[in-house]
Amino acid sequence: MPATDGQHYDVVIVGAGLSGLAAAAALADQGIEAPVLEARNRLGGRILSFSAGGYDFDLGPSWIWPGQPHVAGLLAASGIAVFPQYATGALLHQLADGRIERHPGFGPMGNALRIQGGPGALIQALSQRLAPEQVRLGHTVRTLEKTANGLCLGVATPDGTVQISAGAVALAIPPRLASKIAFTPALPSDITRFLEQTPTWMAGHAKFLAIYDSPFWREQGLSGDAISRKGPLAEIHDISPPEAGPYALFGFVGLDAAQRTALAETAGGPSALIDAAQQQLVELFGDHAGQAQALKLQDWSREPFTALESDAAPLGQHPAYGMPLHLADSWSHRLSFIATETSREHGGLIEGALERAGAFVATIP
Ligand SMILES: Cc1cc2nc3c(=O)[nH]c(=O)nc-3n(C[C@H](O)[C@H](O)[C@H](O)COP(=O)(O)OP(=O)(O)OC[C@H]3O[C@@H](n4cnc5c(N)ncnc54)[C@H](O)[C@@H]3O)c2cc1C
User: Fold this and answer.
1) Residue 105 has pLDDT above 70, yes or no
2) Do the beta carbons of residue 201 and residue 315 sit within 8 Å?
3) Which fold would CATH assign to domain 1-47+119-201+314-365?
4) Domain ranges within the chain, ordered by starting residue
5) I want to staple 331 with a disulfide (CB 3.0 to 4.6 A). Which of 145, 154, 177, 335 is the partner?
6) What mean pLDDT is predicted for residues 123-148?
């Protein structure tokens, strides 16, 4: 019989990504200290950075956009500034045969903005509003049972399985991962179908970073934006800090997860993709691109608390997200799904995670 932690909580939040932490911070502001159970040994979920030369470079999201009220509200409340995505100069277009065309003017990122300190600054600001020990790292929720007076979570911890009792639970985890929790009684089939069929935004993708001592592309009148039909990087941008170096380019890998695995198997390990990506940067931006201070590849399809096998294929179009209203609250309003994919208007985005956290907290008396 698994141990219990001996307490009953009004609310428990599962997942310490942006949606879970935003919900916990808003509840803390109302005097409700909701435990946050997080499977990984870190905060942030899909928000992750790589530190080099004193700067945190994004391995997950990088951009926000004007017209995102929840992001704007959190930035203002946290005193965090934004700056425009660097897009001054020409855009490169690499054709499938490797030829490179230079196009003047606009980059593909339009009016994208970046957050001072990266999206990790949001995670830090939110976590500072929580009590010490409120987030329990290394706590993976495996089972969820509806009981006579609430819900009971079965949680795998480094010290064994514990049971945690709650009045209400917010699942701040991607719907597909939620479908892997064993629910007793089983959820209605339309909810299970929704959870299984909702792809996790960007879960099949990989992001490549190259960090440099100078912005040599800018010196050639290039913005750092590039689109390639040759690959392995399909889309490249400047991800440097706003004021000074170190400078950096990042690219979304154009190969899907199966192709990345096949390349690693046939070409001697994961470094083959890193080498090919750096070589492509040399083709596009010149020899200086071969002299990176640091290189980093983040393959999200290999992260079990983000991606399932069904997420391996990259999503072409942005899916139509949002939890159908009649499914949004289950088990007599005790169980809510609040990850970004459950947002109808901003599903997949940082804004969607914050919007859903706010909507959940508004339901708590
Ligand atoms: C490469 C990449 C680029 C992106 N670019 C952008 C961008 O430019 N702009 C933008 O707005 N958005 C972007 N996104 C999306 C953005 O990252 C997400 O919208 C946001 O981070 C989602 O937050 P979330 O809390 O809903 O989910 P998550 O960040 O996925 O958090 C879920 C948390 O739950 C935990 N968890 C999972 N299962 C369990 C379990 N059983 N028990 C306990 N804990 C569990 C996970 O470890 C994780 O910490 C990008 C994402 C990626 C990967």
Assistant:
1) no
2) yes
3) FAD/NAD(P)-binding domain (3.50.50)
4) 1-47+119-201+314-365
5) 335
6) 97
